[in-house]
Amino acid sequence: MKLTLHICDKEDKFWRARNFLREVFLLNDRLEHSWHVARLDYWRWHYILTCNICKSVEAGMALWENADAKIVAALNHLGGSELRLHVHPQFYSANLEHEMLAYAEENYFATAEDGRRYIYLPIFQDDTRRQGLVQSRGYKKQEGWGHHYRRDLNSPIPDVPFPDGYVIRLMGGVEEYPARSWCSWRAFHNDEPDSNYDGDYAWYANLQSAPLYRRDLDVVASAPDGSIAAFCTIFYDDYTRSAVTVLVGVAAEHWRRGLGKAVMTEGLSRLKTLGCTRVFSTAHEEPADALYRSMLKDMKITDTWLKVL
Known about the structure:
CATH class of the domain at 167-276: Alpha Beta
CATH topology of the domain at 167-276: Aminopeptidase
Helix content: 25-40%
Shape: globular
Order of helices and strands: EHHHEEEHEEHEEHHEEEHEHE
Number of strands: 13
CATH superfamily of the domain at 167-276: Gcn5-related N-acetyltransferase (GNAT)
Distance between the termini: 29 Å
Largest sheet: 9 strands, mixed
Structural class: alpha+beta
Number of helices: 9
């Protein structure tokens, strides 16, 4: 089968790739052997627009098409030197994944302080096929942990205790961007001095411009003083009836009060009302891991596979 490589350098290609991910996700029984479309949205409207860890869609996405101009595979440069491979299960071949990795090694590597070039990707611990393939290319497994949680919403969502004085509600308008941004800083950068906070909340407008953003799935908890103490922002794809919790956090001064569970419970209940039947969350550090472990039922682990070029 002859395939043609294309850089994702036009809007039409991006939107075709976006629908490709939806198709592949359904063919994979709605398991994350490839990206959920919500992760593509988050990559473009947060990682690229806000974090600048990947310069552009064109610089971070390549597509492979067959003779019928059908996309059969996509490769994402997440940022730094991190990769994601998305392959249509009906067109899978070892040669195709070798070609994708060869392209990534040539174009998506990062350079360490000592001058060495490197590249890496996460692989599920039960995906022995891809493990074998990357080993044959010189990748080495790094004991790592990405914990990938999911929950099917076909059973009742239990209520959780909620502290007095706090209010669960939806995110407000532009006037609340500063408060929401500050809460994110206190949730994710609590070990840094407040003087490091730049006060720029434009990133939140970027997030809200993502196609899957919905105000009714942007849940916050207000503290007794009216400040935002916790948040749960969910991207829901009604085409696949599945969702991803893209941002969940609690400001450090409000920890250990059950607020993370409270905002997630509200979000899951709203998802179920909308017809969602499966939700995903990913943790790379202990606080998030503890929360998702308590709220979601199934978990798979990825190890990091690294190649020094």
